[in-house]
Amino acid sequence: MTVEQIGMAAKEYAAKIQETDIYRDYCKAREQIKKDPELYAKVNEYRRATFELHNYTDQDQLFDRMDAYEKEYESFRENPLVENFLQAELAFCRMMQELNILILDHLDFE
User: Fold this and answer.
1) Maximum distance among all Cα pairs of the chain, rounded to whole angstroms
2) Domain assignment of residue 44, yes or no
3) Is 110 contained in some domain?
4) Which position has the higher pLDDT, 21 or 57?
């Protein structure tokens, strides 16, 4: 099999992913949140803060940072558009993780 053939198979794989309810729900939720650019910017800020918190290495201050993070975004997460988008995004990310694990499980990769 050539790299071109694998590329074509990958495109077919991506098309199959686009047909899933999980991906469609994510796209709908993303479209809804993007209708409000200010809210979408705040969602992206929240996502950056989440990423930074997950990658924070100073264990002495981690609890305080987590507490401040939760307080700062508590009311923000109560917005149904935000919560719907974040849940849809999480479901899509989990699906992609599971699919990637499935692929790697069938390869001899260390």
Assistant:
1) 53
2) yes
3) no
4) 21
